[in-house]
User: What shape does this take?
Amino acid sequence: MIRSMTGYGRGEAFLFDRKFVVEIKSVNHRYSDLSLKMPKILNCFEDRIRKLISKSISRGKIDVFISFQSYSKKDIKIVFNEALADTYVEQINIIADRYNCEKGPLLEYLLDFDGILTIDNTSFDESRLDEIWEALNAALDMAVLQSLEMREAEGGALKEDILSKSNLIHSLVTQIKERYPDVILEYRERLGQKIKEVLDNPVFDENRILTEVTIFSDKICVDEEATRLFSHVSQLSEILQNGGIIGRKLDFLIQELNREVNTIGSKSNDIFITKIVIDLKSEIEKIREQAQNIE
Assistant: This one.
């Protein structure tokens, strides 16, 4: 199975009066880059979240968004700031004594002051971490599964497209090999004609022609490059069929394809072969662009 690095997944879980919503968005990236955005109260689960996602998604720019709502009294912690309350009371008593005033409903005054009672939303009770993780894990699993389904669907389409282009490359290289004998023959005829014109003599040394043609044929010979290109195309198909995490393998193989085609281009002085080389480079570039999206 081949996976694209582009995907989206959403998971939602409501358990133990807690609701979690997880969204995972991923795009292509050279390495694995996982970014988490979630409430601070969930920071204690960061390592578990990263490990769970990394088991399924090994490459790409991955953004994870987690929202959390609790309807459980167990998760609500009210903190009473005694020191601050004592200070307020002391100051109220001083004011009342100094100006001989009634203190009034002291409790109501205190509750109106900032900081006397605060909600602690920075951590969970450790005794409930397992049940909280159970709910969060369910939402994460759902989001990861949806993301993988999208990545696999797009990966299948990329595979078929690259296989089609690799078949075209094989056909173009075959045309180059078939054209090679004609290039040699045409060179021999042109060379013979030039020698006739220079010497102004219909009779010339045939051995000299053969020597020049042999040197020329060795110079433009692309048998090795064509053989390697056929081998690379075969490896490309094999890698795609085997599937798995193949992005970096494809990157290397595409570099080798480019190397061999450039060598053929540098050897050729034939218009037909030059046009094919341009077509080959175009198809390899298309494959490279597609391969950049494969995990």
About this structure: Residues 155-291 form one domain. The chain has a mean pLDDT of 85.
